[in-house]
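Justification of computing resources. Each target in the renewal requires a structure prediction run like the one illustrated here; the chain below, 183 residues long, is used simply to show the kind of job we budget for.
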Amino acid sequence: MRGLAMPKSVASAAAVIRIVSARSGCVSAAGTSESGMCTVAGTTCDILGLTPETTYHFTVTARNSAGSGPASSPAADATIANVPDAPTGVGGISNDGAVTVNWTAPANNGSAITGYTVTASGVGAQTCTTATTSCQVTGLTNGTPYTFTVVATNAMGNSAPSAASASTKICFLILTLDYFLME
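Resulting structure tokens:
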């Protein structure tokens, strides 16, 4: 958890942050996590080593030369975000030198998805980026089969690549029509 703000009432005193995890077993008998405490002289605290997708409850205790004060009311629950899951259901529809790739959005794991990157297999490995669940990959060679993978991105980083789509062959048909006028 980065940047947990201290209440103004403890801004000038040293503070101890206590974490109680709703789902993990890291809380000691006294209710204070060894790895979840941080002592600061300022107004923010970075707590490292928390488990992604776990909900935590935070309290703040002010401490000065007279001792420790009472713990604050618990702050709103905070869930530690993680990278998104990999997109699923990747498929494509071909056109002249391009494929429109579609997929199903994955779970964002606590942080909104900000974009996707689609990569074509093969020589040149063309890519496209988008904020939606569809993207047109251009610059492909007609008659060449391609597969596509998609990576989702959020504030925590990139997902693993999706499973590759089924092979999509770029086909383009040119019809020449002859007609005769009959009198």
